[in-house]
Amino acid sequence: RPCRALPLTCRVERTFTAIKPDAVNRGLIGEIITRFERKGYKLVGLKLVRPTQPLAETHYAELASKPFYPSLVQFLCSGPVVAMCWEGKDVVRTARKMLGATNPLESDPSTIRGAYAIDVGRNVVHSSDAVSTAEREIALWFRPEELVEWAPTSLQWIYE
Ligand code: GDP
Ligand code: MG
């Protein structure tokens, strides 16, 4: 009996994943969302955002000293971004594996970046690199009321 209630109540991770302007312009929104849906993760936040420069700067603040930082910030502000929050067991680490290496030429071709990207500055998708980073990024991109609590009917078929 408890195993049926467990997936609904057990504490699970959340991560922040973003479809970058290159992927939005290339019509890859559906492809990328589909990968997370089919994996079994639960979407709890979703919106189309045109990031301001301060938002992009804060998002990538840890990279402020890098030579590519100005162009990275400019790129993120250059068009719409699909901001998402995904929830599920081990989602932070697993989403990073689903994305592949930062440099798409080093990514396994079965990953999102490996399948859809070539240049490191046009690598189509972002996802938080740690649970603590995810908490910061979710709070940066979403207001609390924009995150939806719900229980998909599929949960018992995804978690044992
Ligand atoms: P990620 O966590 O895999 O996205 O990689 P990082 O946090 O290290 O870098 C953030 C983003 O900056 C990456 O997704 C790339 O788009 C970009 N980036 C990282 N390293 C480089 C680089 O050496 N050159 C350029 N042009 N862009 C980079
Ligand atoms: Mg990163």
Features:
single chain; 160 residues; alpha+beta; four-stranded antiparallel sheet; 4 strands; globular; disordered N terminus; binds guanosine-5'-diphosphate; binds magnesium ion; kinase; nucleoside-diphosphate kinase; EC 2.7.4.6; nucleoside diphosphate kinase activity; transferase
Mean pLDDT: 94
First and last CA, distance: 11 Å
Low-confidence stretches: 1-9
Query: How are the strands ordered across the major sheet?
Result: 2-3-1-4
What is the H/E order? HEHHEHHEHHEHH
Percent in strands = 15-25%
Specify the overall morphology: globular
Question: How would you sum up this structure, described in words?
Answer:
By secondary structure, the protein is an alpha+beta fold. It is built from nine helices and four strands; from the N terminus they run H-E-H-H-E-H-H-E-H-H-E-H-H. It has a four-stranded antiparallel sheet with strand order 2-3-1-4. The chain starts with a helix and ends with a helix. Residues 1-9 have low confidence and may be disordered. Guanosine-5'-diphosphate binds at residues 63, 68, 72, 102, 120-121, 123, 126, 129. Its cofactor is Mg(2+).
Topology:
Blueprint: H1 2-9, E1 13-19, H2 21-25, H3 29-39, E2 42-49, H4 53-59, H5 69-76, E3 81-88, H6 91-99, H7 112-116, E4 125-127, H8 131-141, H9 155-158
Antiparallel strand pairs: 1-3, 1-4, 2-3
This protein binds guanosine-5'-diphosphate and magnesium ion.
Guanosine-5'-diphosphate binds at residues 63, 68, 72, 102, 120-121, 123, 126, 129.
